[in-house]
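S., here's the first fold you wanted:
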Amino acid sequence: MDELDYEKIVTLYHHDLYRFAYNLAGNADDACELTQETYYRLLSNERQLRDPTKIKAWLFTTLYRVFLGQKHRSTRFPHVTISSVEHELPALTPEIVNEMDGLLVMEALLEIDEHHRTPLVLFYLQNLSYREIAEILDIPIGTVMSRLSRSKVALRDHLAAHAAQRNMSNRVPMNQRHSESQ
């Protein structure tokens, strides 16, 4: 096997790999750590890469497995967040969508559980095919499609909840309006 050009690999894939790591981890520090560990494994385990033409899939698969390993280890010291979810959400109208920005969508994306968020990130942010996602996550293509469908619904629900919360915070109670006008 020809020797890999590591600088070229980093140049070609670093941005996408980091974005994927950020979407998994939810913060820049952990994303950097995941990306660095992936490159370390490439350098130290080059022989594991059987087909150099599939370097992108190998990098994403390795990063995902590193993430899962870290997540598994963190179960010994869990970080617990308490959140409440509204059961009845208003419809997400086109007007509300037009008012939203990318940051809001990324925050809502991080609220979706990891095994649904990952295929969504790989498909929409990394532009990977169903087949590539299935290979990276080591799941059937049908499962990829199912998780994408469920994750889109979950993302819509989170965005609608945020929009409803924002609309509620912008409203002034009737009794307060009356007292201000006097």
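And the second, which I think is the more interesting of the pair:
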Amino acid sequence: MMKTRILSILALLLMAVTGAMAQTETLLTTITATGTEQASYSTANVATVSFSYTAGGSSAYTAIWGWWGYGWSATVNAAEGYTITKCIFYDDANRTATDSEAPFVVETTEEDKTPQVNGTPILAYTSKGIKKIEVYGYAPFNVTANEGASDVEYWATYYNASTTQGFTADENTTVFQAVLSGNQLTMTEVAGKEIPASKAVILKSTAASITLTPATTTATLDGNALQGTATEITNPGNAYVLSKGTNGVGFYKLSSTGTIGANKAYLTYSGGGAPSFLNFVEGNVTGIEMPKVATTNSDAEVYDLQGRRVANPTKGLYIVNGKKVFINK
């Protein structure tokens, strides 16, 4: 019973996500017209507004109308690492027009200074100028990982709850999907460090803080056994969570009252014997890590592949100090 409680606590220690709101569409910045436009108007290192003109076009700024004039267009672009999903343009009377598809542009014609979005005036040719632009989308954010076998190895799980937006992990991190065969878990590296929408993954890094950046992804993660939750939940039944326990880093059975954190991944296993521990090996598309051959060490704790302590192991495959070992005895 004590062992179960300890494993539940260890599992929770691996469930920190910072900036979790960044994985949902959010207001990134508000660009307010505060002076005469420039070639590139930057706000908070999140977005820029670039102006261009027709042959007879010009623009100006007034405190009442904001940006106004004839024959000009303003395009909103995301800064590096950000993704814009929509812009809401406000005119001089706080009337709005929303653009939900790139490019995000407000413009006027040489004949008419009424701001238009996608060719439609904000309000029946009565708007004078643009006072502000709300920019919505996705920002980079950090996931906190916990130390594994050494201080240069950190592990975490992550569930991308967005149904439309993918992410990529930073250069220090490897992203894995997991295939469960019996009670053996094989991790396969995901190309491009991609985390597609609505997918759960394992993260292995050389740093404790992992940066995820919004990006277009193409990975499908076929055969992935990992499940995820967007909100904190109580054990849904037969759940295993990533933790560092007696057998090293792996997936440990969660207590019936244990919880799984928001935006975290987990496994469910209902096979015979209901082991307390699911070991994994790192592989690639076709490769499997081969077990080491060893003799027993009187000081080592030995477990079978079902996670049960073995006092006197015979010849066979075991978990010793968190590693898969073939004992030749």
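Why I say that: The chain has one helix and 31 strands. Residues 2-13 form the longest helix (12 residues).

Talk tomorrow,
H.
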